[in-house]
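Priority: low. Protein: peptidylprolyl isomerase. Input follows.
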Amino acid sequence: TELGVERRFVPESCPRAVRPGDFVRYHYLGAFPDGTRFDSSYDRGSTFNVFVGKGQLIAGMDQALVGMCVNERRFMKIPPKLAYGSEGVPGVIPPNAVLHFDVLLIDLWNSEDEVQIQTYFKPEKCPRTVQVSDFVRYHYNGTFLDGTLFDSSHNRMRTYDTYVGIGWLIPGMDQGLLGMCVGEKRIITIPPFLAYGEDGDGKEIPGQASLVFDVVLLDLHNPKDGIAIENQLVPESCERRSQTGDFLRYHYNGTLLDGTLFDSSYSRNHTYDTYVGKGYVIAGMDEGLLGVCTGEKRRIIIPPHLGYGEEGRGRIPGSAVLVFDIHVVDFHNPSDSVSITVHYKPSNCTVLSKKGDYLKYHYNASLLDGTLLDSTHSLGKTYNIVLGSGQVVLGMDMGLQDMCVGERRTVVIPPHLGYGEDGVEGEVPGSAVLVFDIELLELVSGLPEGYMFVWNGEVSPNLFEEIDQNHDGEVLLEEFSEYIQTQVETGKGKLAPGFDFEKIVKNMFTNQDRDGNGKVTAEEFKLKDQEAKEEHDEL
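Result:
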């Protein structure tokens, strides 16, 4: 005669219990005391949805549902006076029938409910939170209140990407995402009137269903965003900052806003080399690389409309904010020339180096970021060249001009006057600016341009006869070489310094041997000042 309620299963967690006025969704089996079933929501494939305590149920069920938790199972014995009484339900429930119900509560909400937010992880740093009109990328698991999964972006291995607060989402999700930080994790519980309402979505979500979204925010930007720059290290000395048209070499780590690495120049052990402001890189990077110093480290945050847009590229998903941590190794402009800084010049600096001079000098060679490439000091010997003869890169030929012995200077050489785009494999990177710290130790004056040998005095009027020692009217290479060597050793003549003696003499002899028969006759023999201007000189 009295209502009987047996709690057959009670979940460990019960944040909320049914109260009069709540709306519930539940499954049930209805049977008579002898076990004969008269009704079942399972057979219909849908829950029974109803308000509690508003007279929409038999009185016994109204009472028995109060205090239930979602996922709780109750067995109820309802006497006739709290069920269908003496009249029953014709054809279904006889008069004065005791009814047994096996009930499983699936869902519970109230018309006064609001979106519930439970944050269970929040990053220590939260420079920005989601606002109305922001575009977000997030992962989620969507479940009903009883824990049944109905959807998951993780299963699709693709984030859900959308604007917030402009009607692209159900109202409850629009509210639930506001104020989130990138990396934050929260559970958003949404009542059906802020979700898919009475009709559901027509697929997975039934009508009047509360929804629970377990969300992690991966990305956040606004279409009005520009790039953001965070300076991490700026050198104390910054004589020059990058401008449009400069060529930069830099290292970088590229990550998404949640820290996922998508690319790194360090892993390739090679800088990224590009022009700036010319459209060779994405627009945000073009802008972010302006105004940097050599050696500077900065973070450049690029919204997708200045990055790879809605489509993304490779490991970069569509609509992704990009974070580049860059380290500028060097930069130059194609219009740059050699830069010379003199650190010490002797007071008696009267003889200056010029083209053709033979120089001996020490140097330390490094990149613009200070990386040492080479040093004559470590080898314990000087570097020796004939200036202007192409024995060094063009920039060094320029940088060694007009030096005096004892002078110390720093010569900065742009790559187009150094080793160019290719560099030197294993030694000098391509497109690298070079820095040479130089000390000139010795200078031997060269000969006038175009000469490999000059006389220190008057030239003998019988020169050919003197060279032709056996007086046969022909001079062989051996005779010619012996004669030149004697003139040099006795101080009567001078060879261009820094070149191989045999090569110079052979070159001089070949120029005199005009018919190429290996012999020089008196008719062939001419001094340089006797040669016609249109003929090639001895050099």
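The longest strand covers residues 99-109. The mean pLDDT is 93.
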